[in-house]
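Shift notes (night). Ran MobA-like NTP transferase domain-containing protein while the centrifuge was going.
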Amino acid sequence: MSVRHDACILAGGLARRLGGCDKPGLRVGGRPLVERVAAAVPDAGRLIVVGSPRPGLPGALFLREDPPGGGPVPALRAGLTAVSAPWVALLAADLPFLAPEHVRALLEAAGTGAVLVDGDGREQWLVGVWRTAELTRALARYEGRSLHGLLAPLDPVRITLPGTPWFDCDTPEDLRRARSGEPDASARA
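Came back to this:
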């Protein structure tokens, strides 16, 4: 089943727990994290990256949230302005083990949306797919700063997949695990 979708990768965080480095540009397996995430959405009609331009993503549309570094809700608000497909994959830029089959599984399971659930049963709000119209309406009404507060009321299908596609790189230890290629399946997301 092929679902027409765009992808919105949020890549503008401050990476405080990593010492303020350019987290999307950190390399895992020889590629910047943001390029690994972009490779997980090869069927996206449009690739939107909310963050600094990247030479390794020549076909991407780069936008900035207002204010820059304002968090995931302002970043989503900026990215959603460029979405034209009926569905959007909303992804963090630091998911080294996300693959096309994970995004396809989310798209195939979605009602108004689908979100990946980690090994501890927690929703990972930056690994999901959403009906663009529903997300746009919810965002127009929402004044908070929490993705959970915005997305949970949309009652997404919760998806658990094998492996650790939800694993993200927030700390030096996370980055070490990602570079070793074998994060513990119970690793913190």
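The first strand starts at residue 5 and ends at 10. The chain has a mean pLDDT of 90.
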